[in-house]
Specification:
The structure is a homodimer. The first copy, chain A, is of the alpha/beta class. Chain A is built from 11 helices and 9 strands.
Chain lengths: ~270, ~270
């Protein structure tokens, strides 16, 4: 069984990062993946210390990326922000910086252009990530997010980029984003040791919102054990991170959410 | 410019098939693609006659498919229904029978299994389709429909099946379903003369519903002229079918919808 990590977005509406760190310790969850906004609230140095004192592994920092922008100044600002994200990931000892690569610039219909901006951004960033010892985890997002969140849509596309980028670049495999892909088994095998993170959540039927209706593992139709088996067969030995963006789960008591996460981790993922 | 066809689902809430046939004639739209429920209401023979008398080209019959089912009886019933669809497509002289291949059987998490059922269904159907002279148009649907509508998710996957099936099988390329795909240009080129239909509608930002929030061409972010250029370069010489499943457009006066469709056809697709 891969050890469990709490992606803090799962309880973002009710818990600060400090609450999450204490919650993980209290529930015996050994991993944590913070989001940058909450890291900033707490202060990076304080967060790093508290996470270390709690004995937690930081399975990833969410998130860098968001490369495409309408003009050169916007793209440069994105790179600047990603530089800060690399420094933060280094400071908290994150296993990787998770990259959500960004959608089309506002008003644009130029998808190949946005993909070129993503590629340029990654090339600009990689040397600094390498220098800091921070691995970049390219996370393909579900194609329904292509317009406004991620022009990186498939594992195959992410691995093409990784092939080109070389050392220091890998992928984050999120069940929710890749389960539908007819190529998923082949691409996970191809990824091999470049799998830097494994995220679990479930696809609900019906799904009522394109962003905030993800399911707790076991509540939907994704064969999560099959996907976990694929990443393990590819050599992945990290954590399974449960990351829910869900209005339904945000409304629950976070201690209940963590309890249910632990049960599902034991039975489903 | 590819000639325009009205997919009747675009005005399904207010117009019968007879209304659609008259509407196309009145607005000078030379193609029509009926749905089977409306064809049944009118009667196949009557519809065939009226469509012929109006001088319309039937660019496709929507829809066959829906192969996966929980048990063998369910799968046999689906094949039976597809046989009737082939007969109907033949009767109205449809350029193809559009196949929406179906989602996971209720309660199932076995996506490879559902895909095998789709494949078996296609193999069972093809001889009869060939005998009737009805081309089968495999339509990959957006991955967000994988669980409940279509385990056929990409053009690449559809063309693998077409390679295996041989003569009589091709694809329907719908901008809405394929625009995000990093492989789209390569797969459209690969498809070549196997492109049996080209459907246009647009991806809205934000999209508020996974099924019924498609945009009128020009209102979203899809570079429809680029996709049309790809299918033309691949040798496609058929119609561009406007197919909207949209609560917003269903509420409009259908004559207004057809007028706007014609404008957008002239300027966008």
């Amino acid at each position: 069984m891969l050890p469990l990590s709490l992606n803090t977005v799962t309880v973002r509406e009710r818990w600060s990062l400090a609450d999450c760190i204490e919650g993980c310790a209290r529930h015996g969850i050994p991993g944590i993946a913070p989001w940058r906004d909450r890291l900033a609230e707490m202060g990076v140095a304080a967060a790093a210390r508290r996470i270390r004192d709690a004995g937690l592994t930081v399975t990833g920092l969410c998130r860098g990326g968001l490369f495409p922008a309408a003009d050169a100044a916007g793209r440069a600002a994105a790179i600047e922000d990603n530089r800060r994200a690399i420094a933060e990931a280094h400071a908290i000892g994150a296993a990787c910086l998770v990259l959500v690569c960004g959608g089309l610039p506002p008003g644009s219909k130029d998808l190949p252009g946005a993909r070129a901006m993503m590629r340029d951004g990654l090339h600009a960033l990689l040397p600094e990530a390498r220098a800091a010892g921070v691995a970049l985890a390219l996370e393909p997002l579900h194609p329904m997010t292509c317009a406004d969140r991620s022009v990186l849509s498939t594992l195959g596309q992410a691995l093409e980029l990784c092939d080109e980028l070389g050392e220091g670049a890998g992928v984050a495999v999120d069940c929710y984003h890749v389960w539908w892909d007819p190529e998923v088994a082949r691409q996970i095998a191809r990824a091999g040791r470049r799998i830097l993170a494994f995220h679990a959540c479930d696809w609900l039927v019906p799904t009522t919102d394109l962003v905030f209706d993800r399911g707790m593992p076991g509540d939907g139709v994704i064969d999560i054990p099959a996907l976990r088996g694929m990443v393990e067969a590819a050599g992945y030995r990290g954590f399974v991170e449960i990351e829910l963006l869900s209005r339904r789960w945000w409304a629950e008591d976070p201690d209940d959410v963590l309890r249910i996460m632990k049960q599902r981790h034991a039975t489903v993922c």
